[in-house]
Design brief:
It is a single chain. A hairpin with a 2-residue loop joins strand 1 and strand 2. The protein has a two-stranded antiparallel sheet. It has eight helices and two strands.
Length: 149
Amino acid sequence: MKNKALDLTKQFPESPRKIMGGYVHLARMRDKARAKAAGTVGEYIYPCPLDKRLLEFLEINDAAFYEAAQKLENAKLADWISQKARKRSPEEIHQWNEMFLSRQPDNPESLQYFVSLRNKIAPEREGVKTWVDLLDLEEGRPAAVSRGK
């Protein structure tokens, strides 16, 4: 079965918060990989720095994931990740997910870039501090819109 790729020039990929196969960001990375293969990735990047963080944790290379995302439907892709990824305990996965969701700019240049992006979208939203919150804010998701001031 051929997976239908999203047209990321017209719609957003999943939120990084969505859990797939136990991992945050996996569904978003899947959407971007499929859109890249279909030529509908728009301004999104696969693999972006956030994708690379997840791939490093999984110990799966970006080319292998890219190929699997195109060939496998969602449930089978989650199974493939379970088989191919480095074996981790549920607690290790939970801790990684929490770290990923709470990641903030970690140096002055990164902070400056983050603030400039946030200020273009919603300068009044100073409570938006994490990269995931910024993505959700930029893509108009209620979770980010309802948090912070």
